[in-house]
């Protein structure tokens, strides 16, 4: 008889649940969208009570078609990172959660720089000075909303759900790594940083390794969800890290999540630090592993912007069919996908003329994002201690575009493997749940039956053409954006 594993994926605006059996066969899925709160002063918040309400809702919905619910053995959580909420002594929210998209902490970066310096902060936390991380936002709250620190606990999204499920205030290394208060070398809260900025460690969650059992499900929650009292709640992790474990990351495989944004992950057996302090480093889900992670804010978002603005009567498949006629051609059109308000540069087309039609410009959009992915991968490869990888595993909505997948293979001169794209982060949470429940030995050994959907091999002729185009793209980037 099958045993079931539940993975909750609490994203920025979507909450999802996947249920897999003990052979990692997908049994059921459910999801629901929810909103951010945009305040007049530019701050971005979220109702953390929705995190819990909607998580229960999607679990109940996903369970609705399962008759033998008594065979559910474990639940784990994948979540957005860098958001946080204040809780009182009873675990109730005291205010809205501050979203990871909120950048009110920018005004406090100079203070951090003066106290520690950029290099010291990066060597401790793996983070460059950026206002969206938790530490600068806490410093802003100290100045502007000191009542926040009357909180009994400060919870991040994953551990907020773990707390509601089990009553235990526990986070993991990947979530803690996104705070700028966590020492990725020692794998613990950095006490010197906490002391310097007067942040009470007792308010922060205890840190445990992913796949550790936090406890059993609370009886009232079990009754509400229709589950048995012996279900174990397993410490999960940050969504991109959970997705990468489901995609099959290892030291010879780089993963690329090609969704609204594009997140690139490389796995190492030690922290591989960027001398330029541009590439963030995180402790990973498993012991003695770290990841370098970098991202493009607008990947699928740039393609969606183009389609809605210039070609709304065409589907993505139709646009790809037109664009493929411009594949590996030197038409002189380049696209720079810096459309996010937080990007250092502004988005741009270069080389437009009267003959610049949809097929040429949409191909430029696909190429521009592929060039950016390739350039970020090049930077990651140049880090001291970085290892060569042999394959790129691609997943997310963008991986449904065969044109884009082949393009990334040619631009990166690396085989691209497209995995089953069914909610990778929730799948990763199910794998972690299975390890915690003792069903799997470790998360790297659960994918033997997982088949590759498609393999895209680089074409020698196209690789040469796209190397020339990438160099031209880089040269123009330097010229336009200095």
Gist of the model:
With 482 residues, the protein is α+β, with helices and mostly antiparallel strands. The chain contains 15 helices and 24 strands.
Can you give a write-up of this model?
With 482 residues, this protein is of the alpha+beta class. It contains 15 helices and 24 strands. It has 2 domains: 4-239, ATPase, nucleotide binding domain (Nucleotidyltransferase, domain 5, 2-Layer Sandwich); 249-418 and 452-482, Nucleotidyltransferase, domain 5. It has helices at 48-63, 109-115, 118-125, 134-144, 157-166, 173-176, 191-196, 219-225, 239-247, 300-310, 316-323, 358-381, 402-412, 424-436, 460-481; strands at residues 4-10, 14-21, 26-33, 37-38, 44-46, 72-79, 85-87, 97-98, 153-155, 170-171, 182-183, 188-189, 206-207, 213-216, 232-238, 253-258, 262-268, 281-283, 290-296, 334-336, 348-350, 391-395, 416-418, 454-456. A hairpin with a 4-residue loop joins strand 2 (14-21) and strand 3. The model has no long low-confidence stretch (mean pLDDT 94).
Keyphrases for this structure?
2 domains, Nucleotidyltransferase, domain 5, 35% helix, alpha+beta, six-stranded mixed beta sheet, seven-stranded mixed beta sheet, single chain, globular, 482 residues
The number of domains is 2
Report the β-strand fraction as a percent range: 15-25%
Total E-strand runs: 24
Q: Which spans have pLDDT < 50 for at least 5 consecutive residues?
A: none
Round the Cα radius of gyration to an integer and report it: 22 Å
Give the structural class.
Answer: alpha+beta
Look up the CATH topology of the largest domain: Nucleotidyltransferase, domain 5
Arithmetic mean pLDDT: 94
CATH architecture verdict of the largest domain: 2-Layer Sandwich
Task: Give the strand order, joined by hyphens, for the main sheet.
Answer: 18-19-17-16-22-23-24
CATH superfamily of the largest domain: ATPase, nucleotide binding domain
How many separate helices?
15
Give the CATH level 1 class of the largest domain: Alpha Beta
Question: How many strands, what sense, and barrel or not for the largest sheet?
Answer: 7 strands, mixed
- Termini distance? 62 Å
């Amino acid at each position: 008889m099958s045993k079931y594993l539940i993975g909750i994926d609490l994203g920025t605006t979507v909450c999802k649940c996947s249920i897999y059996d003990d052979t990692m066969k997908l049994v059921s899925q459910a999801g629901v969208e929810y909103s951010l709160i945009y305040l007049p002063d530019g701050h971005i918040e979220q109702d953390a009570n929705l995190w819990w309400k909607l998580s229960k809702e999607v679990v109940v919905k996903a369970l609705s078609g399962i008759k033998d619910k008594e065979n559910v053995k474990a639940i784990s959580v994948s979540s957005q990172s860098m958001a946080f909420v204040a809780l009182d002594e009873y675990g109730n929210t005291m205010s809205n959660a501050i979203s990871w998209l909120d950048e009110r902490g920018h005004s406090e970066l100079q203070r951090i720089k003066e106290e520690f310096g950029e290099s010291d902060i990066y060597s401790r936390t793996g983070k460059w000075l950026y206002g969206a991380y938790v530490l600068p936002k806490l410093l802003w709250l100290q100045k502007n909303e000191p009542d926040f620190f009357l909180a009994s606990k400060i919870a991040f999204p994953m551990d907020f759900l773990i707390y509601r499920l089990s009553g235990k205030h526990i986070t993991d290394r990947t979530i803690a790594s996104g705070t700028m208060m966590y020492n990725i070398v020692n794998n613990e809260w950095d006490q010197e940083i906490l002391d310097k900025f007067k942040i009470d460690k007792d308010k922060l969650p205890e840190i445990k390794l992913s796949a550790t059992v936090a406890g059993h499900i609370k009886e009232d929650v079990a009754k509400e969800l229709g589950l048995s009292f012996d279900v174990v709640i397993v410490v999960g992790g940050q969504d991109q890290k959970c997705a990468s474990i489901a995609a099959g990351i290892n030291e010879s495989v780089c993963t690329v999540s090609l969704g609204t944004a594009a997140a690139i992950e490389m796995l190492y057996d030690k922290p591989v630090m960027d001398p330029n302090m541009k590439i963030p480093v995180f402790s990973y889900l498993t012991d003695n592993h770290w990841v370098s992670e970098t991202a493009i804010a607008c990947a699928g978002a740039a393609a969606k912007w183009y389609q809605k603005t210039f070609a709304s009567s065409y589907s993505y498949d139709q646009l790809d069919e037109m664009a493929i006629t411009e594949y590996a051609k030197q038409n002189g059109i380049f696209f720079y996908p810096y459309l996010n308000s937080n990007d250092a540069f502004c988005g741009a087309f270069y080389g437009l003329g009267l003959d610049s039609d949809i097929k040429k410009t949409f191909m430029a959009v696909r190429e521009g994002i592929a060039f950016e992915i390739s350039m970020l991968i090049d930077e990651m490869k140049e880090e001291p201690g970085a290892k060569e990888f042999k394959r790129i595993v691609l997943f997310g909505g963008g991986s449904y575009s065969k044109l884009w997948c082949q393009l990334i293979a040619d631009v990166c001169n690396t085989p691209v493997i497209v995995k089953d794209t069914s909610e990778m982060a929730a799948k990763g949470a199910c794998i972690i749940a299975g390890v915690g429940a003792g069903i799997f030995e470790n998360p790297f050994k659960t994918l033997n039956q997982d088949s590759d959907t498609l393999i895209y091999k680089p074409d020698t002729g196209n690789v040469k053409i796209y190397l020339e185009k990438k160099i031209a793209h880089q040269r123009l980037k330097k010229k336009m954006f200095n």
